[in-house]
Amino acid sequence: MAAVTGGPATATDEVRAAGGVVWRATDDGVQVCLVHRPRYGDWTVPKGKLEPGEHPLVAAVREVAEESDVRAVPQVRLPTARYLVDGRPKVVDYWSMRAVATGGFEAGTEVDEVGWFDVDDAARRVSYPHDAEVLAAFAALPSATGTVLVLRHARAGRRATWSGPDSARPLDPAGWARAVALAPLVAAVRPERLLSASARRCVQTLDPAAARLDLPIEVTGDLDEPAPGQVPEECVLAAAARLAELGAGGVSAAVCSQGKVIPGALERLAGAPGDFGTPKGGGWLLAFAAGRLLAADPV
Q1: What is the pLDDT of residue 22?
Q2: Fewest Cβ atoms nearer than 10 Å: which of 41, 175, 191, 270?
């Protein structure tokens, strides 16, 4: 029997996997995607093992596409499933995902059928209790309308050792390496827009993703830290308003901002205090419903 929890996995002997509850809207409501695996004779939520060094969110999007031939935008983190496979603990991270495109699925040895079902039917059809529990968690969510990936810029050396304007301080080698590593994560949310604070280190953090996606970076002062003499709350409100605007637009976006702005903006959107401290090169996956913040999950 699987246990479903939300905590992170740390054991080195764990089998790590990721997947998603992929949904689409129909005239009759919402349908979710299941796959049939002939090897096991089961119906399950699409998922698969992480590749070495792969971020779970990137793996989830990739595995959904490989198993179901559905391209999807991740939205809300769902409960993590833990169970044993051949005596080894397996940990599967899940996200809800909005289907945005499908290809020409061809049956194979791993998956021979893809089906779309209403949530109740899917919960009855799946072969494992942990899948039913993840579907139940999805069913309890409001329908997400927008996804925004918020990143804090990567490392840019020490301010004290930079002789030029702070806004011109560039990424250091470790920061560039992190920016390159972030590009697959940015691509996984299938952004239609990339936005950055005006500081060079913020723009540079998105540069590898922009090249990969062939998207321009829109530079906006709404995401900037306070300038000398500026009231910090003004910057927090401006950043929160910009994030809310993106979330209400029904599209996916990725933005890069700064450490003195992100925590306050997320608290403002959440409507309550929270631990939104963000390390350099870290970030949050935000999901919005009807213009309101539905979930903020660290990535």
Answers
A1: 97
A2: 41
Distance CA 173, CA 274 (A): 32
Q: What is the pLDDT of residues 234-270, one digit of tens each?
A: 999 999 999 999 999 888 999 999 999 999 999 999 9
Residue 178, H or E segment: helix 173-188
CATH fold of 146-298:
Rossmann fold (3.40.50)
Q: For 26-49, what is the mean pLDDT?
A: 94
Of 51, 60, 47, the residue nearest 185 (C-alpha): 60
Amino acid at 35: V
CA distance 32 to 24: 7
> What integer is the mean pLDDT of 134-159?
94
**Cα dihedral: 284, 189, 289, 9 (round 10):** -50
C-alpha distances (whole Å) from 232 to each of 78, 203, 219, 263 are 34, 21, 20, 12
Map out the domains of the chain as residue ranges. Answer: 3-139, 146-298
What distance in Å separates the CA atoms of residue 224 and residue 198, rounded to the nearest whole number?
6
- Which residue(s) pair with 97 in the sheet? 22, 74
The percentage of the chain sitting over the pLDDT mark of 70, rounded to a whole number, equals 95
Answer positive or negative: Cα dihedral of 80, 182, 223, 201.
Answer: positive
- Do residues 151 and 256 touch, judged by C-beta distance below 8 A? yes
pLDDT in tens, 1-27: 233 333 444 445 899 999 999 999 998
> What order of strands is seen across the sheet that includes strand 217-219?
217-219, 193-196, 252-257, 146-152, 283-289, 292-298
Alpha-carbon span 207 to 179, nearest angstrom: 8
Query: What fold does the segment set 3-139 form as a domain?
Result: Nucleoside Triphosphate Pyrophosphohydrolase (3.90.79)
